[in-house]
């Protein structure tokens, strides 16, 4: 059974205040578990194999949920389960679902039973010479098409035709690549976030995912993350606390050698993709930026904020293309967090002038874009309430004193962006 989720005013208002807090992050994550279960139910109706096989997998998941509901929910709610369910679900709707995609449900059942402490033995299909267990890692199986995975007393073993081998948790071997985790503690706030470079469903961003990182490269990520977390907990502890509660996974992306990139996928909560940031401050701001997108996307699974029939396109200073109203809302919400974080980082960032300039740009862009949203006439009643609360937060950013030359240059840059956008739009 899934739960029916409503959006209480406290949730809407708390998120509109741009932060939200750990409790609201957990509420959004709970709604995602129900979404994942609904998607899985749809995939079960498309099951290509024997009904007995389908029923065994469904029964294993149900047994895990009955034995340890919270532990099973944590496993089922992980982002890579959501990514798989969404990708396979869309393919099924179009009649293009591959058997390997549907059969990945067996891996989901394995991790759910392992989390819940339910003994089970299942056949899991191999793909590209490996079996992937969402959130745990990838087992190399060679030429074997399938592998038997057993969960006994929460210990996993895999047999790809050469006898059972224990899956060694976080220890990497020639046959097991665990999902490594970035860890940091600062200001009394601890965090653990997976850096997933092995899951087959970690794609869908505007840049391809990196293959397995070397240990030296992972260590560079860890060093940068540790410093970014220190900055965030010292300067924006409320944002750090909600990120620790709701952000589960980062996917390293292949860079173009010119600039850092990051993106959040609309249908998956608790994960985003990024190239390795240039420095700790950019990493801290990127964590806030993309988690803002994640929160809003998860909220939109529960409540409608914009009129879906509004076909107009709008200027968004973060993009060169005209944006629909829902896309403009995403930008406003994300960059409200960006502006607030640069504001907070001004006093500790080694490049204070740069931080102050970026704060000035972001708050002005958010102010003007939010005004466009509010004047559109295409917000739902909940959207109006959300925008009104968000306006209060943005006004608090506008009230922060800035040197007059800094504010003036931000105004000039905004005018230039609008002029270039208008010229490009007219030329289309």
Write up this protein.
The structure is a single chain. The protein contains 14 helices and 12 strands. The strands form 3 sheets. Strands 8-9-10-12-11 form a 5-stranded mixed β-sheet. Strands 1-4-5-6 form a 4-stranded antiparallel β-sheet, with helices on one face. The chain has a 3-stranded antiparallel β-sheet with strand order 2-3-7. Helices cover 53% and strands 13% of the residues. Helix 4 (69-76) runs antiparallel to helix 7, helix 8 packs across helix 9 and helix 12 (352-375) crosses helix 14 (404-427). The chain folds into 3 domains: 8-24 and 179-296, no CATH class; 46-178, no CATH class; 304-428, no CATH class. By secondary structure, the protein is an alpha+beta fold. A hairpin with a 5-residue loop joins strand 5 (155-159) and strand 6. It is globular, with a radius of gyration of 23 Å.
Give the secondary structure arrangement, pairings included.
Layout: H1 9-16, H2 22-45, H3 51-67, H4 69-76, H5 79-93, H6 99-103, H7 105-116, E1 120-125, E2 130-133, E3 137-140, E4 146-152, E5 155-159, E6 165-166, E7 176-178, E8 180-186, E9 189-195, H8 215-235, H9 237-246, E10 249-252, E11 262-263, E12 271-274, H10 280-300, H11 325-345, H12 352-375, H13 381-398, H14 404-427
Parallel strand pairs: 9-10, 10-12
Antiparallel strand pairs: 1-4, 2-3, 3-7, 4-5, 5-6, 8-9, 11-12
Helix pairs in contact: 1-13, 2-5, 2-9, 3-4, 3-7, 4-7, 8-9, 8-10, 10-11, 11-12, 11-13, 12-13, 12-14
InterPro entries: AKG_HExxH
Organism: Actinoplanes regularis
Protein name: HEXXH motif-containing protein
């Amino acid at each position: 059974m899934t739960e029916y989720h409503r959006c209480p005013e406290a949730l809407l208002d708390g998120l509109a205040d741009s932060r939200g807090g750990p409790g609201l992050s957990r509420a959004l994550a709970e709604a995602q578990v129900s979404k994942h279960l609904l998607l899985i139910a749809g995939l079960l109706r498309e099951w290509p194999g024997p009904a007995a096989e389908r029923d065994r997998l469904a029964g294993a998941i149900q047994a895990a949920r009955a034995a340890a509901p919270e532990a099973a929910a944590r496993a089922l709610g992980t982002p890579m389960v959501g990514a798989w369910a969404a990708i396979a679900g869309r393919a099924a709707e179009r009649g293009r679902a591959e058997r390997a995609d549907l059969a990945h449900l067996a891996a989901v059942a394995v991790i759910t039973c392992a989390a819940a402490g339910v003994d089970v033995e299942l056949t899991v299909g191999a793909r590209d010479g490996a079996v992937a267990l969402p959130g745990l890692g990838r087992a190399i199986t060679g030429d074997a098409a399938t592998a038997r995975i057993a969960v006994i007393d929460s210990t996993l073993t895999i047999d790809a035709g050469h006898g059972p081998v224990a899956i060694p948790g976080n220890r990497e071997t020639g046959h097991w690549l665990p999902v490594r985790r970035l860890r940091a503690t600062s200001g009394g706030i601890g965090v653990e976030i997976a850096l997933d470079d092995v899951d087959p469903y970690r794609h869908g961003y505007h840049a391809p995912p990196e293959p397995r990182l070397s240990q030296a490269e992972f260590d560079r990520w860890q060093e940068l993350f540790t410093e970014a977390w220190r900055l965030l907990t010292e300067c924006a502890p409320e944002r750090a606390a909600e990120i620790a509660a709701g952000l589960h996974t980062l996917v390293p992306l292949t860079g173009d050698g010119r600039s850092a990139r990051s993106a959040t996928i609309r249908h998956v909560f608790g994960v985003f993709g990024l190239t390795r940031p240039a420095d700790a401050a950019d990493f801290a701001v990127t964590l806030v930026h993309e988690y803002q997108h994640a929160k809003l996307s998860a909220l939109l699974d529960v409540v409608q904020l914009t009129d879906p029939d509004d076909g107009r396109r709008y200027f968004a200073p973060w993009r060169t293309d005209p944006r629909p109203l829902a896309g403009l809302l995403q930008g406003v919400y994300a960059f409200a967090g960006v502006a607030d974080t640069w504001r907070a980082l001004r006093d500790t960032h080694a490049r204070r002038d740069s931080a102050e300039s970026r704060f000035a740009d972001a708050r002005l862009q958010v102010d003007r874009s939010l005004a466009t949203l509010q004047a559109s006439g295409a917000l739902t009643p909940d959207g109006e309430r959300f925008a009104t609360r968000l306006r209060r937060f943005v006004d608090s950013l506008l009230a922060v004193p800035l040197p007059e030359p800094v504010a003036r240059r931000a105004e000039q840059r905004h005018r230039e962006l609008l002029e270039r956008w208008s010229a490009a739009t007219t030329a289309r």
